[in-house]
Design brief:
Blueprint lengths: L2 H8 L4 E7 L9 H17 L4 E7 L14 H4 L20 H15 L5 E4 H6 L4 H9 L1 H12 L11 E2 L10 E6 L4 E5 L13 E4 L6 E2 L2 H12 L6 E2 H4 L4 H13 L8 E2 L2 E3 L14 H7 L2 H9 L7 E3 L3 H19 L16 H6 L13 H8 L6 H8 L6 H20 L23 H16 L5 H14 L4 H13 L7 H6 L3 H14 L5
Parallel strand pairs: 1-2, 2-3, 9-10, 11-12
Antiparallel strand pairs: 4-8, 5-6, 6-7
The structure holds zinc ion.
The site of zinc ion has 8 residues, from loops.
């Protein structure tokens, strides 16, 4: 059974799935893993006919702890230590910093078809909904300290209270320390040395902790959120899920202070995005928004789902990774399309098809005639080629409106990839005018291969990718030359590289007379070697 369906099958009663995010800046694509995982649990529960709600919390009472490098340092450094909802927005499009960055992230949710009920911590605090929890945790500060000590070995002084006030004088929340509570007010100090990244102003005094005057530390806040919202399922990333980590601490506080069971929990792994070029040279990065503008929504969901939650996803938007992702997706769609007995009934889907099912924005898989993505990337780089005409010509069957919808999406993705992500090595340049320099140094064996090939290609009647590919192979067999060396000679002759896209397909996009005359030119230039 697919992991999310298993969670759904085990669920009893009304479930509330929750996830959350601190909107401290541009959201990395890695954060989408949790979003998609929770969305799929939600869908699996709905699918199983169980009552369920999906909530997404914006932790905007957290402090701004660093100014991201893409923002004006001078403008934002004075706000270090402020709650994110009290920091100005980088642009006029939002009321504040938290809403600005969350807005960007929510656009990606929309794109991915993820529709949780979004709530903001500022509203929970300011409306007084968390007042009773604040009172409970302040009155049971000793139990909270005990939980920290027992679970994470973190010692807190006896006069430490689980609360942070927004300093009435300087506006910072990260620098205040509460050392007393009299049942209606807390005593706090805004300490110059509270953190090593921002200084407090030194102010101290008594103030009410209620109605938005401050916040609970996040592990404690987590417990308050679970209870006030009735959360029953919340997964957490590996960083929070280690033994003695924040989730364990929150669980212990939940049991000790509220005397309740914490929600169902399981951990998920990170997404490692490799490739330094992503974040620097071309100015494109690995933010969720940027990756969403590269991959169609189903493919981005599929990226998150084809790997089990507990396994690391290595994602680098290079040729290899991107073309494999698309190929794997198309292979599953084809498998589905070729299995009429399971169509239209998701209960009959095999386990390997479930990631495809949950990758859909809607509730059904719609088969289409696919067009190989790596070929598309090659085609887009051939000058003067009408891509759509070429695709229509090469498709074995007439293409429907939906096929074209998918193909247009793929063309856009391939163009975006070529423009923003492909490095020079990955780009294909077809040498139309002259023989590439690298083709002038072939081995005698490769030259004889090209000679035989030119001869055999003359005889090819049907100039299409499949037939050409067959000819390329049969010629190497005929001469008993290893295909690796033979194909290398072709790539060197046309693209000046040792490797390239499927060679038969590549040649099929070029004119027959051009291909044959190029082979003859290369042979001539290498003539002295025979
Ligand atoms: Zn202060």
């Amino acid at each position: 059974m697919f992991w999310a369906d298993k969670i759904a099958a085990d669920a009893k009663g009304h479930e509330i799935v929750n996830d959350s995010k601190t909107p401290s800046g541009r959201v990395h694509v890695g954060s989408l893993r949790g979003v998609v995982i929770h969305d799929v649990i939600y869908r699996a529960l709905k699918h199983a006919g169980k009552p369920v709600k999906f909530l997404y919390g914006v932790d905007d009472y957290d402090a701004l702890d660093t100014v991201p490098k893409y923002l004006n340092q001078e403008k934002f450094s004075p706000y270090l230590g402020f709650p994110l909802c009290n920091v100005p927005s980088p642009e006029d499009t939002a009321s504040d910093y938290a809403k600005y960055f969350m807005g960007e992230f929510l656009e990606v949710f929309e794109y991915l078809g993820v529709k949780p009920e979004v709530y903001y911590l500022r509203d929970l605090y300011r409306s007084g909904k968390l007042n009773s929890y604040i009172d409970t945790f302040l009155n049971n500060a000793h139990l909270v300290r005990e939980a920290y000590k027992e679970v994470s070995k973190a010692e807190r002084p006896d006069n430490w209270y689980p609360f942070q006030v927004v300093c009435e004088k300087c506006g910072k929340i990260a620098t205040t320390v509460v050392t007393d509570y009299n049942g209606s007010e807390v005593f706090y100090t805004c300490k110059p040395d509270a953190t090593n990244w921002v200084e407090g102003c030194g102010h101290s005094g008594w103030v009410s902790p209620f109605d938005g005057n401050g916040k609970l530390p996040w592990k404690v806040e987590w417990v308050a959120k679970w209870d006030v919202l009735g959360v029953t399922i919340e997964m957490a990333g590996k960083d929070h899920s280690q033994k003695g980590g924040s989730r364990d601490v929150a669980n212990a506080i939940c049991r000790k202070v509220l005397k309740k069971q914490p929600p169902f929990h399981s951990r998920y792994e990170f997404i490692l995005v490799n490739g330094t070029k992503m974040s620097s040279s071309k100015g494109v990065g690995s933010s969720a928004k940027e990756i969403a503008s590269l991959l169609p929504p189903e493919l981005l969901r599929f990226l998150m789902l084809r790997t089990q939650p507990r396994t690391v996803i290595n994602f680098a938007p290079n040729y290899e990774t991107i073309t494999r992702l698309l190929r794997d997706y198309d292979t599953l769609v084809d498998k589905y399309a070729n299995s009429p007995e399971i169509q239209g009934d998701s209960a009959k889907l095999t386990k390997d098809l479930m990631p495809l099912f949950y990758a859909q924005i809607g509730d059904e898989i719609k088969p289409y005639n696919s067009f190989d993505f790596s070929t598309l990337i090659s085609l887009l780089q051939i000058p003067h080629l009408d891509i759509k005409e070429e695709i229509a010509k090469r498709s074995p069957q007439p293409l429907s409106e939906f096929d074209w919808h998918i193909i247009n999406q793929r063309i856009a993705a391939a163009q975006k990839w070529l423009q923003d992500y492909a490095d020079e090595e990955e780009k294909l340049v077809i040498y139309l005018e002259q023989v590439p320099d690298k083709a002038q140094d072939l081995s005698p064996e490769q030259v004889s291969y090209l000679e035989k090939l030119a001869e055999n290609l003359e005889k090819v009647e049907n100039w299409d990718g499949e037939e050409l590919q067959t000819t390329l192979f049969s010629t190497s067999k005929e001469l008993e030359i290893k295909p690796a060396g033979a194909f290398q000679a072709i790539y060197l002759s046309f693209v000046g590289k040792e490797r390239g896209p499927k060679a038969g397909a590549l040649l099929s996009y070029l004119d027959k007379p051009f291909v044959i005359s190029r082979l003859r030119n290369v042979i001539e230039l290498n003539a002295s070697k025979i």
